[in-house]
């Protein structure tokens, strides 16, 4: 589809630490951790993106419940679901929400719909991106076994060279790019300012958000939020957007990996805000917890307001 030609640059910015993003976004608590298959929920407002079916995707999309939330897997056709604010308080700002799940599943409720609803309540048009995923076994036992195998190999996962890093995310980057294009093409209909579209992602969704920012030249998010993503350093361009980053210090995946990405943004003299919460684990999202990490969304909204993204121009 011609995506990885002149449209893609700065690939080196996403190479380091990509392997660590192939992880499930899960809450710190193991309560209700049993995966239970469920029927695919109705998604009447979901808009099919024009990126086509996943090449080689043979297993059909399926969903399951876990941690009191719902997850999608084997997504072979990408969609974008709008959550539009009350016109009376719409700011004209939009945010694409990218759930996490190790590029094998998507935390559609905790890191998707619930985030979008909270943004819409504040006057921000939110769009949940259900991007295409790597295929997993169709049956639940096979899927669970594949996830255990993935986790067992995380510590020895090799680093990818820059071109391989971008290539590995080719379907997801195409979906992200298509989401930005769709929103801009219907900006008047959705009362969105095409120059004020941001993106927020969780875990693997944070990696997708960062890669979209640094490697897809025609996406150009106005601002980005990375929630418990990799902190590996990156090559940051002079026009990089403002970045908000939230992470728990006890995150088992990224809590002890240094602060390279924050330092990279600061070295490039680009705006960055970093929240390191004492507790919260990985995958806290919109779950209500007793830890201060629960306050990340209010901090993110305040940060957006500071940059003028919670008010009309």
From TrEMBL:
It comes from Caulobacter segnis (strain ATCC 21756 / DSM 7131 / JCM 7823 / NBRC 15250 / LMG 17158 / TK0059) (Mycoplana segnis). One of its GO terms (molecular function) is hydrolase activity. This is Dienelactone hydrolase domain-containing protein. It comes from the Bacteria. It holds the Pfam family DLH. The keyword Signal applies. Residues 102-290 form the Dienelactone hydrolase domain. Residues 1-30 form the signal peptide. Gene3D superfamilies: alpha/beta hydrolase (3.40.50.1820). Keywords: Hydrolase, Signal. The lineage of its organism: Bacteria, Pseudomonadati, Pseudomonadota, Alphaproteobacteria, Caulobacterales.
């Amino acid at each position: 589809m011609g995506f990885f030609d002149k449209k893609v640059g700065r690939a080196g910015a996403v190479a380091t630490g990509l392997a660590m993003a192939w992880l499930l976004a899960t809450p710190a608590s193991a309560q209700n951790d049993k995966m239970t298959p469920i029927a695919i929920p109705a998604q009447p407002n979901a808009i099919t993106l024009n990126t086509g079916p996943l090449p080689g995707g043979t297993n059909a999309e399926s969903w399951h419940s876990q941690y009191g939330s719902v997850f999608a897997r084997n997504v072979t056709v990408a969609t974008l679901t709008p959550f539009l604010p009350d016109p009376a308080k719409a700011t004209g700002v939009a945010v694409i929400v990218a759930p996490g799940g190790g590029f094998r599943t998507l935390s559609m409720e905790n890191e998707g719909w619930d985030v979008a609803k909270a943004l819409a309540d504040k006057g921000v048009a939110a769009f949940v991106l259900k991007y295409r995923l790597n295929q997993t076994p169709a049956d639940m036992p096979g899927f669970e076994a594949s996830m255990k195998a993935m986790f067992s190999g995380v510590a020895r996962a090799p680093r990818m060279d820059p071109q391989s890093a971008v290539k590995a995310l080719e379907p997801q980057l195409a979906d992200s790019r298509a989401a930005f294009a769709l929103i801009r093409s219907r900006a008047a209909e959705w009362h969105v300012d095409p120059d004020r579209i941001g993106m927020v992602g969780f875990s693997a969704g944070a990696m997708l958000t960062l890669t979209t920012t640094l490697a897809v030249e025609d996406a150009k998010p106005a601002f980005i939020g990375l929630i418990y993503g990799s902190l590996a350093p990156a090559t940051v361009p002079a026009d990089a957007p403002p970045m908000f980053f939230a992470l728990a210090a006890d995150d088992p995946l990224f809590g002890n990996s240094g602060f390279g990405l924050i330092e990279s943004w600061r070295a490039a003299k680009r705006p960055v805000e970093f929240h390191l919460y004492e507790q919260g684990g990985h995958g806290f999202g919109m779950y209500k917890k007793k830890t201060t990490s629960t306050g990340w969304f209010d901090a993110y909204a305040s940060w957006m307001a500071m940059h003028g993204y919670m008010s009309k121009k």
